[in-house]
């Protein structure tokens, strides 16, 4: 599933081709994604400029003067920029045609993504209003995590992956950050000290920044290509390495399941 760095990379890849461009046509080939695509967008969006393009959690927000398209890539979706002469393939479900002769094309083989329309204030939209802070913003800190964790018995990894606490810290990034911070993933969130949370927040920011920077080297892939940047080129230290030796202490890494997700950790480095 695309995570925050992949969605951020997508945003940076398409933004120069989309922002301040005018929509000429909306083509919906498959209306049924996770939720039905509102049919009204084909009628009301032509001749509307895209005045803002931003990301909130894993949602991409394309704002026009009359409302906002909310787009989610689901499990396997991707966005890319193609010329208006590029023929659509089997899983190319939506085209947003622009007056600059470009098309913003949504591809989603598993159809778990979403394309919704809203005219309400974004901060009050049902999909957005309960989201926690962005992990790369100043409002996200070790002190914030420590305050949110008070009295909570849930495992710290599960705590980190709760979008109401903080958005975008998915399985890979939570696993890696906890390893770098030396925190056992099963430790109760409420039992971790402020100092350790401060260290953890730093590591979360580092790993997400590194992932975004790696994705940023493949922005050209969003034009006349498959729209899929080279995710995870950076060296993962624990995720996916259960049974291999720890890069820090050479002890064999352990693998467990937490809330139906794989977790890998070092029993020596992570107390």
Please, what is the average pLDDT? 91
Any idea what the CATH architecture of the largest domain is?
Orthogonal Bundle
State the order of secondary-structure elements, H for helix, E for strand.
HEHEEEEEEEHHHHEE
Helix count equals 6
Structural category? alpha+beta
**CATH fold-type name of the largest domain:** Helicase, Ruva Protein, domain 3
Fraction of helical residues: 10-25%
Contiguous uncertain segments of 5+ residues: 216-225
The strands making up the biggest β-sheet line up spatially as 1-6-7-5
Structural domain tally? 2
Shape: elongated
Instruction: Supply the CATH class of the largest domain.
Output: Mainly Alpha
Largest sheet: 4 strands, antiparallel
User: How many strand elements?
Assistant: 10
Radius of gyration: 20 Å
- Fraction in beta strands: 15-25%
Cα-to-Cα separation, first versus last residue: 29 Å
């Amino acid at each position: 599933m695309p995570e925050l760095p992949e969605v951020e990379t997508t945003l940076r890849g398409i933004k120069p081709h989309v922002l301040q461009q005018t929509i000429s046509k909306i083509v919906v080939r498959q209306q049924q994604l996770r939720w039905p695509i509102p049919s009204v967008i084909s009628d009301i969006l032509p001749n509307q400029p895209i005045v803002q393009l931003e990301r909130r959690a894993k949602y991409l927000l394309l704002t026009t003067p009359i409302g906002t398209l909310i787009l989610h890539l689901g499990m396997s979706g991707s966005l890319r920029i193609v010329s208006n002469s590029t023929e659509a393939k089997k899983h190319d479900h939506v085209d947003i045609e622009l007056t600059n002769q470009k098309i913003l094309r949504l591809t989603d083989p598993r159809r778990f993504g979403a394309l919704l329309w809203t005219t309400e204030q974004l901060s009050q939209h049902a999909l957005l209003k309960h989201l926690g802070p962005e992990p790369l913003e100043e409002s996200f800190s070790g002190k914030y995590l420590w305050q949110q964790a008070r009295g909570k018995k849930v495992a710290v990894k599960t705590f980190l992956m709760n979008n109401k606490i903080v958005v975008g810290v998915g399985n890979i990034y939570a696993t890696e950050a906890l390893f770098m911070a030396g925190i056992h993933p099963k430790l109760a969130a409420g039992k971790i000290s402020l100092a350790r949370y401060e260290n953890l927040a730093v590591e979360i920011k580092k790993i997400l920044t590194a992932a975004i920077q790696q994705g940023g080297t493949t922005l050209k892939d969003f034009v006349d290509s498959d729209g899929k940047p080279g995710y995870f080129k950076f060296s993962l230290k624990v995720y996916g390495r259960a049974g291999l030796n720890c890069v820090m202490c050479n002890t064999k890494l352990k693998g467990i399941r937490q809330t139906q997700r794989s977790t890998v950790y070092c029993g020596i480095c992570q107390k």
